[in-house]
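Q: Sequence in, structure out?
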Amino acid sequence: MVDPAAICFGGQTPPHTPGKPSRGGVRHSGSVDNPALTDDVIRLRALKPTDADWYAVAIRDELIQRFTSEAPDITSDDVRKAILNLRGQGNATGLLICDAVSGERLGNIALHHENGVGDVSYWLAATARGKGAATRALRLLSRWAFDRLGLDELRLWTHADNSASRRVAERAGFHRDPQRDQERQIKGGTWATIAYCLTRMSGMQVRVRKATAADAVALARLRGPWPTDGHGYAGADHATFVELFSAWFVEHLLTHLAFLAEVNDHVVGMAWLMVADRVPSPTRRRRRTGDVQPVYVVPELRDRGVGAALLDAVLGEARRLDLEHVTVHSSDRAVPFYQRKRFQHGQRWLQWRPE
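A: Exactly. Output:
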């Protein structure tokens, strides 16, 4: 694989496609001289000029020449110049894959990123293959790119016939992305390249729990972004609203049951069950019903099962409380979502609004 620099640190040249617009989250620009990434088996460190001789020899390997765009006539001087040039690129990182104990050079992995999207490339020297080093390196780099650089998505392309590289991507958690497969002109020929991607939340574990009074501020913050989603409240003072909402929640803990969804200890969604007492009847002395109220998931995690997990928790609570029925006032877009959870149109549900 190779990146767009003069020397192709990595191997398979990423196509020049734009990244998606940034959501405005934290972005750390600039390459990191020494990320100190290790899993005690391998270590990733910044390329140094003293690595140039080894690099120039390693890329002459038959498989590297067959499956990457590394030029066979690159000299040590070319590599040294490229390493020095890489240090000045704010959106590029080139790392050497080393044995964590001996420091032996094993291979190369690179990252270019822009607008929250990174393109990854990698190769291993002939003597380092078959031991899992590339998979470990890709996992380490991916975690660092998401956690330190704040990227949202990573992409990579591999030669269609390079089954070993494809297995590396899949074992590191990357998923096939057929829409980005491309035929590309490399080394005077047409190569079929296979695309893979990994998002920040790929393989995420969603935890849903019942909210307590201590979660009032977190709930208020989820409720607060709604003005930007077209739900009104434009210009509301955020701090004032958080204070108001927190006080309201504490006062309504017994009637408005809130549930929070968390991913990696970050709150990403909420759902509410309002419980109302009904007039007792001779056959049923305690009658209660429920109403599903705001089900909200942060935009970047919608259609990923978070809302379904929240609604499952709400309905589980409704069963535990032995509610007669649960209603919901749904948007048109969300009707199929609720129908999948066995909500049905009420035959006798009428509504009155004051004029």
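The longest strand covers residues 266-278.
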